[in-house]
Amino acid sequence: MVAKILGLFIAAFADAAMAWLKARQASQKDHDIGRVMAELDAAVRGKEVADAMAQADLDGRSDDVAKRLRDGRF
Q: Which residues form the signal peptide (predicted)?
């Protein structure tokens, strides 16, 4: 009788541990996806800034673009 109760307790604990591990893995995947998306967004934004700076240099407006970047209005 005690062995049966102990076996049920161990089985319930194992199920809870597996559910926790699966939830943790799903959370980690979401975190990884978010990190990759943030890196891609930063790369695209960096390219946009570089393109704008290059165009501003061609147009002779590099001071205006630099001021906008400092003010955070880009």
A: 1-19
